[in-house]
């Protein structure tokens, strides 16, 4: 067997269902983010944002008492919550016997925060002027949506993978989605900001985990060679 054939077989061995699903998810998430960026910054369309704002404004008028609970929900992807949670949760994961999972959560959040800020600076979109909750910073993509998806998505993956608790995947992802919805409800973000945040968070999680997996594989290979 020649070297080229060996490499092809090794590559085929990497194409597991997990890898293929991750590749498809990354392509879809990247395409959605790119599409939303074009809608907002090239075509300057506000149709989706106005439609979403109209719906949530109708909810608020019909149920005035909803704003209080919405403010509570939105806190669970705010930096005052995510910063300590991104340290405490990895410590708990490490204590449970999964040090790699702990590093994965910690590094995923650190990278997501940095990437979100870079994207905000690049696109430089101001926030809505009629926000019900005063928030500093730029608007696109939503930090609550992107960081929330990274945190709860990574937690869902770790619970399913290492702790054999796949039942938590759907609730955690729905919770991240609900948090994103609160940003539109409070006019802290446009709907396109939130959708782009979800797409950016998903693309980052897949790309980060793929890179981390390759790094650990190389590290194991070096250790075995020694």
Automatic annotation (TrEMBL):
UniProt signal peptide: none
Segments traversing the membrane: 12-36, 72-93, 105-123, 143-160, 167-188, 194-212
CDD domains assigned: PAP2_like_2
Top-level taxonomic group: Bacteria
Keywords (A to Z) from UniProt: Membrane, Transmembrane, Transmembrane helix
Keyword Transit peptide applies: no
Phosphatidic acid phosphatase type 2/haloperoxidase domain: residues covered: 102-209
Cross-referenced PANTHER family: AT30094P (PTHR14969:SF13), SPHINGOSINE-1-PHOSPHATE PHOSPHOHYDROLASE (PTHR14969)
Name of this chain's protein: Phosphatase PAP2 family protein
Organism of origin: Hymenobacter negativus
Lineage, highest ranks first: Bacteria, Pseudomonadati, Bacteroidota, Cytophagia, Cytophagales
């Amino acid at each position: 067997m020649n070297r080229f054939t060996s490499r092809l077989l090794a590559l085929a061995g990497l194409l597991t269902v997990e890898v293929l699903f991750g590749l498809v998810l990354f392509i879809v998430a990247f395409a959605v983010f790119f599409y939303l960026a074009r809608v907002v910054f090239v075509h300057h369309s506000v149709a989706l944002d106005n439609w979403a704002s109209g719906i949530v404004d109708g909810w608020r008028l019909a149920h005035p008492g909803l704003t209080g609970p919405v403010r509570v929900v939105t806190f669970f992807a705010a930096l005052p919550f995510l910063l300590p949670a991104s340290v405490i949760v990895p410590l708990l994961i490490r204590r449970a016997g999964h040090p790699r999972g702990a590093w994965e959560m910690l590094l995923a959040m650190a990278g997501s925060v940095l990437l979100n800020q870079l994207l905000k600076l690049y696109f430089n979109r101001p926030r809505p002027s009629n926000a019900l909750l005063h928030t500093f910073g730029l608007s696109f993509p939503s930090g609550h949506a992107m960081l929330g998806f990274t945190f709860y998505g990574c937690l869902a993956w770790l619970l399913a993978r290492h702790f054999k608790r796949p039942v938590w995947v759907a609730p955690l992802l729905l919770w991240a989605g609900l948090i994103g919805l609160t940003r539109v409800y409070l006019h802290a973000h446009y709907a396109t900001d939130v959708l782009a945040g979800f797409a950016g968070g998903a693309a980052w999680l897949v790309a980060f985990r793929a890179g981390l997996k390759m790094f650990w594989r190389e590290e194991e290979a070096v250790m075995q060679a020694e």
